């Protein structure tokens, strides 16, 4: 079968950076792809399809309800809008004009992650006014308490490697403070493997990427309190309209979550680690390189292969400019290393990558 990239004139890449949007996210599972294909030519009622998805989301994650959005970023904007409008259709139509409604959103400054755009910009798209508290390195609980006032519609908490990893208020305490003030908490957990931790900590809404860790087509999953999910769905008649998800995206999420629930996730995670160890075995003895297994954020089941080298920048640039172009996780470049994410490559890809790195490190 002809590679569609050739037909379109696209450069071939091996994506060892992980399921990031700039490289098209993760590959959908076969069940999700089949569900999307099967529904494409069929008329359906989107509201009914969303209701079915809500049941699957609730069953998978133990929440009251859920809905599917065009992506996790769309989910943030829609959830914030829902917190401001509630079930008031006039307010839904009024946004981004927030006159007469609670419109302020609190977030920790160290959580204003840049995932291609800033979380703060996604929030402000709704018309909300942002109250950023603390600084990039520290936030005190009292600062959050002072920020929550009569006009506060919601507070947003971000779980990401892009955020400050210390000095911030933890999620459970963040939720306790917000709930004491009657403020719902929206958690952006786009890259998380299992949002039940965030729901268990007290989040009212949790948003994840459907394609990064669940094997769906590109989509976001919004889950949590039923009343807020209902308000999220109402945004389709307002500012959420340009962010609407297609039937194929919703169907793929339903199939992907069914598969995710059946999956032996411990075996999947072990296979990720096994693949990362292929790089340790292949590159570990090469002078000038130090290769190790590196855990992702605390509590994550993901282990990457971390490669330390004195010429990291040169190696990464050369890998990217090669044929095929090899892209790696570059978050650690300022600290002298890069990483290979095992989720978006197979064993053959890993061998190809290791041969390329060995050639660049030895001058071969």
Description:
- The protein is an alpha/beta fold.
- It has 2 domains: 120 residues, Aspartate Aminotransferase, domain 1 (Alpha-Beta Complex); 219 residues, Aspartate Aminotransferase, domain 2.
- The protein is 42% helix and 17% strand.
- The protein has 15 helices and 12 strands.
- Helix 8 links the parallel strand 5 and strand 6.
- The longest helix has 19 residues.
- The mean pLDDT is 94.
Descriptive key words:
seven-stranded mixed sheet, 42% helix, globular, alpha/beta, Aspartate Aminotransferase, domain 2, three-stranded antiparallel sheet, 364 residues, 2 domains, Aspartate Aminotransferase, domain 1, single chain
Q: Which homologous superfamily in CATH is the superfamily of the largest domain?
A: Type I PLP-dependent aspartate aminotransferase-like (Major domain)
Instruction: Please provide the ordered H/E string of secondary-structure elements.
Output: HEHHEHHEHEHEHEHEHEHHHEEHEEH
Q: Average pLDDT value?
A: 94
Amount of helix: 40-55%
Stretches with pLDDT under 50, minimum 5 residues:
none
The largest sheet is: 7 strands, mixed
The CATH topology of the largest domain is what? Aspartate Aminotransferase, domain 2
| Estimated structural class | alpha/beta
Which CATH architecture of the largest domain? Answer: 3-Layer(aba) Sandwich
Radius of gyration in whole Å, from Cα? 22 Å
Assembly category:
single chain
Number of strands: 12
Count of separate structural domains: 2
The CATH first-level class of the largest domain comes to Alpha Beta
Going across the biggest sheet, name each strand in turn.
2-8-7-6-5-3-4
User: What proportion strand?
Assistant: 15-25%
Distance between the termini: 33 Å
- Tally of individual helices: 15
How does the overall form come out from the CA principal axes?
globular
């Amino acid at each position: 079968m002809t590679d569609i990239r050739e037909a379109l004139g696209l450069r071939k890449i091996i994506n060892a950076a992980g399921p990031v949007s700039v490289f098209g996210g993760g590959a959908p599972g076969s069940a999700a792809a089949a569900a999307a294909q099967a529904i494409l030519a069929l008329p359906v009622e989107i509201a009914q399809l969303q209701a079915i998805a809500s049941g699957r989301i609730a069953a998978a994650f133990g929440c009251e309800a859920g809905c599917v959005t065009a992506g996790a970023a769309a989910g943030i904007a829609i959830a914030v809008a829902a917190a401001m409008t509630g079930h008031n259709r006039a307010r839904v139509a009024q946004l981004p004009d927030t006159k007469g409604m609670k419109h302020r959103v609190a977030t920790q400054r160290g959580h204003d992650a840049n995932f291609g755009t800033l979380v703060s910009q996604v929030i402000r798209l709704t018309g909300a006014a942002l109250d950023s508290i603390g600084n990039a390195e520290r936030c005190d609980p009292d600062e959050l308490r002072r920020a929550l006032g009569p006009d506060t519609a919601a507070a947003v908490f971000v779980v990401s490697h892009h955020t400050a990893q210390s000095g911030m208020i933890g999620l459970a305490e963040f939720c306790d403070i917000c709930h004491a003030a009657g403020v719902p908490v929206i958690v952006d957990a786009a890259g998380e493997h299992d949002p039940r931790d965030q729901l268990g900590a007290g989040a009212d809404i949790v948003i994840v990427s459907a394609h990064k860790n669940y094997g769906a087509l590109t989509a976001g999953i919004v889950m949590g309190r039923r009343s807020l999910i209902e308000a999220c769905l109402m945004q389709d008649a307002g500012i959420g309209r340009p962010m609407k998800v297609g039937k194929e995206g919703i169907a793929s999420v339903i199939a992907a979550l069914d598969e995710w629930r059946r999956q032996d996730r411990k075996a999947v995670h072990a296979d990720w680690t096994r693949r990362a160890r292929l790089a340790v075995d292949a590159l570990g003895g090469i002078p000038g390189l130090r290769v190790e297994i590196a855990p992702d954020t605390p509590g994550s089941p993901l282990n990457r292969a971390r490669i330390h080298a004195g010429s990291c920048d040169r190696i990464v640039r050369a890998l990217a400019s090669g044929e095929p172009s090899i892209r790696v996780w570059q978050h650690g470049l300022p600290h002298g290393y890069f990483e290979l994410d095992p989720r978006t490559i197979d064993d053959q890809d890993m061998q190809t990558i290791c041969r390329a790195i060995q050639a660049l490190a030895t001058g071969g």
